[in-house]
Design brief:
homotetramer, 332 residues, alpha/beta, Glucose Oxidase, domain 1, 11 helices, 17 strands, KFase_sf (chains A, B, C, D), hydrolase activity (chains A, B, C, D), EC 3.5.-.- (chains A, B, C, D), Cyclase family protein (chains A, B, C, D)
Chain lengths: 332, 332, 332, 332
């Protein structure tokens, strides 16, 4: 890997961790999603027991606001046609025999609702995952765009680690760290094991706070500033060599959380912001999914005591997308 | 049902067909999706055999164009940040240790890519599905918005009827009709049965034409005008009492096709445009999904001889959406 | 005028004031802009002396934010092409001999920057200016859209009343009222007279506060809530019968201010919000222009002692616009 | 000037022509607009005689389409609020006493309606006007953005050369060339002289064709392809050393036309596309304004025999805009 001057601080921090470059060929743009082969899919299907389903996508364009990294904007949803158009005589449907219709569009940040980060979302040392030149992002993502993930889909066995319930709190406070040790203790308490190829879901309770107590309560808890810009300070796992090696060894294809930033925003171990993002996305090719609504699923798991399930997610097939909005489904 | 003067021609045409109003209560906004209970989900899961997956979403913002009803526009995809921002010194990532990132957004018609129509997309007689007032659509969908479908998800057993292969053609020509009799013959030839609660997928080959031969070839085949406006003239099933009763009796929760309009656009039986839409969406509460990429799935089915599978779809959770973009996944 | 039940409180309040309905014919959609005939234009031209020019439009998409009514959003400005596209080989300009170009677009609230309100922006009693049915706004403005103003242009003699300077303050505080008496005293002190047909510009200093001390200082001074929604509480003139009659008698075609709301937001005289808007726009057909950058112009006027000038404004020609963004020019 | 390899063909073609780099200082971002000083403004004001006004902006979002370079899209105009919202109970205006309002936004290509190209719209040899690095355009225009033009305004004496009327045709056919000799003959026939500092307007009749006979007639006449992409082939002036020197010597601040491309699209003299753009914008700093509605103005000039007037234009103040939509006003 070629590190330029700017990237060195980060590159130095993570210099001891593994990567998956070349593992699936020099042209690979899927990364750890390659772990989800048909056998992995069948393991996911095999985890189904009750047939109960849960969708994880958060509302888009909710009148009370959407959870959002502060430099992004809420989605806009525009009605293009409704009953008013017909009342005002602005549309006729004669060839249709008179039935009427409505239409609409969305103006949506790809990272502004429940989504999966593509492998080209993050880089350092001027190189993306698998060594692609970061300059290929200029004017549109050319390598590792989200279309590859959209085309493949994310289907496998999922495991929820409900850290909030494990700690017996409604939600983790701003800035709190979850250690690997705690993850494993949580799994153990839940009677579940993170196996090779499992999609890992971690619940902090943040989305539940947003939707139960409202946007103001959420931002009051988590909003802060970084370098003069509005930002969030969320709870989560963070960078350690041990954790990264565990992700690698467990062959985790994707990390999904109910937070906006997926990890402890201001890392307790590195002092920098979001150090797991590049290690996961760019080095290991591990996808990251953020802003998942995990509250109902967690309640269901607590009830039946089963924290493994079939996970199915497929982002919108945005050509050259840096990420893709999606509404994942869990089948228990 | 209260028919107003404008709607009478259509209302008269379909006056002999059943509806599902009140079947799931006066407040129901899910319609035939109610058929997809945990048992139906388990039947879908039970149809899995190989673990192969197929995603059905079409590319969004493809440089060669997206398939589109002519009065809608292709999606716009805007890069908000790429490597160029960093080269030009317009962004710094100091608190991050210097790693860099890309960001983007989409401006997207909800019915302008693979999507599911919500029950409020279509009405006549001033009433939506279950008798809700069509005036509730004014200024934003209040009843039967796509958020209900997004929250529930569409998970069950799916069956593909590959009419194009059944006819031994690459794609059905503009305006051709598929009869119920042909659907049943196709199923029989394929050795599959449409059972109660199955998601019904019908392949005409239209999306394959678009993606194999290009947008020009597609529009040359299908583009036409209705009442002075540019329109499409596609192939598909169309309204008959018998067909509607079959959908009702089979408890089909959703019809999905690889066309833009889901049915024979200019109906051979009624002479009007798209007469199945209101009967399915508004009367029976049956969802409709359009522009599905079915070519690879069909090839897979032809290869292993199995036309049933687990179908999983969840539209984006657009609050008050008339429809929702989605990237469905099939697990064989 | 037909008042419906909902509108009665407002209709009662303003029942004693005049209107211009029918004055320029039953089909008129220009209102008081009709006062700006060629003679009025020549009066404006006659006010030119030095040839100095001032533009009044505020920046759109400023990195530090744009002044905005809180329920609207800042403009988004998207680069569609820049040098990065060429560096990354994503565009070629062969037929051009190799020269390169940049391109962009804006996503812009029509009332989200310096603009003029169209006559269809506001109504009561279910009727717009000149008695047009308010239902004609459904699904797009059919009568009194901003295209009529855009087609005509706003050209005439303008007069600035610099109330902030008159009071010897940098800006008027939130909620302060400017009376007609004060306007006249200000004019008198400035040695200028508001004559028939003059475009009236009133300066409170609000935009200067925004651009000199920043968005935070601006919102700290003016932000409030109305009925649970974020709102502003600005300074300005407000409704009295006397003031409305003065506008009518002076044949003022347009009121322009350096505030977001153009008038005392929470009216001291009526207790309601923005009571001048409907009286001016809907009854008299007087246009309203908001968020004008008046600081430089005011300094220029103070320097040369001349507060009259040629005013030239033409909003974007948005078909069916409720208002139109514009960048007015003053020629002194 | 530093020419890179890619740019050489163009750079060679125009190597004999003058530039204005450094003329107004190394930091100048206004270019030839500097010619429009207060004296020039007063010369424009002195050209007023009748007080008649003409606006030149074309409709935005017209139901029958907007004139457009084929790779751009028509503007979208979205209603955000109308009477339907109130009828459906989705908005209340209690604090307002019950008066109601409408609201809207536009999604608009800056070069997709009547506009002025900023000096950063075009470059070659990796340098913008005045030698600024073309890399400063990456991720947003940093130098020579349209905000400088918006802040200054374009006010001066304008002269219309009505070439269509001079040729006694309704419009110039696709691909036709207008020579400098013809411009001067046209001026002479019209009894007008292009003086130093005049804004130059050239009419070909193209916009009149669009608005009189419709979009289809317009594109039938002018649409073509360049290098596989849809394009236009319009009539206009084109590059010669003599013409460029005339622009320079006449100190023309801006060229405005009623075409989409402002010049003979496929140059008869260079064989390349649009060779005047970089010479005017990047070398001389001369602005270019396109898609001006000149038909009514031309008729007025023909009637009174006066082809000079006051020209006033100010684009929207888009920060970092590559161009700015505007609705210019002519005062005769």
């Amino acid at each position: 890997m070629d590190e330029n001057a700017d990237a060195e601080p980060y590159a130095e921090i993570v210099s001891g961790t593994p990567d998956n470059w070349g593992v699936w060929g020099d042209d690979d743009e899927l990364g750890a999603l390659n772990h989800l082969d048909p056998d992995a899919v069948l393991r996911g299907v095999g985890a189904v027991s009750s047939g109960e389903t849960f969708t994880l996508g958060t509302p888009i364009g909710h009148p009370d606001g959407d959870p959002m990294w502060p430099t992004r904007d809420d989605a806009d949803h525009h009605m293009l046609r409704d009953k008013g158009h017909f009342e005002a005589g602005k549309v006729t449907r004669e060839p249709y025999g008179g039935w009427e219709n409505s239409d609409d569009l969305v103006y949506l940040y790809n990272h502004g609702t429940t989504h999966v980060d593509g492998l080209a979302h993050v880089w350092y040392g001027d190189e993306l995952y698998n060594g692609f030149d970061a300059a290929t992002t200029k004017g549109g993502i050319e390598r590792c765009g989200i279309e590859h993930v959209a085309d493949r889909g994310i289907v496998g066995r999922g495991v929820l680690l409900d850290v909030a319930r494990h700690r017996d709190v409604e939600y983790l406070d701003a800035g709190e760290r979850i250690t690997l040790e705690e993850l494993l203790a949580c799994a153990s308490e839940q009677g579940v094991e993170v196996r090779r190829g499992d999609v890992l879901l971690i619940r902090t309770g943040a989305m539940d706070l947003f939707y139960r107590e409202g946007a103001d309560a959420f931002y009051e808890e988590f909003e802060t500033t970084h370098g003069g810009e509005p930002a969030l300070d969320e709870a989560g796992i963070t960078y350690t060599e041990e954790l990264v090696e565990w992700f690698d060894e467990r062959e985790i294809p994707m990390l999904a959380t109910d937070t906006v930033t997926a990890e402890q925003t201001i890392s307790e171990t590195t002092g920098t912001r979001l150090p797991l993002h590049p290690v996961l996305l760019r080095d290991l090719g591990v996808l990251i999914s953020e802003m998942n609504r995990l509250g109902d699923l967690a309640a269901g798991c607590a009830e039946d005591g089963r924290y493994e399930f079939l996970y199915v997610g497929a982002p919108l097939h945005v050509v050259g997308g840096t990420g893709g909005p999606m509404n994942p489904i869990v089948v228990k």
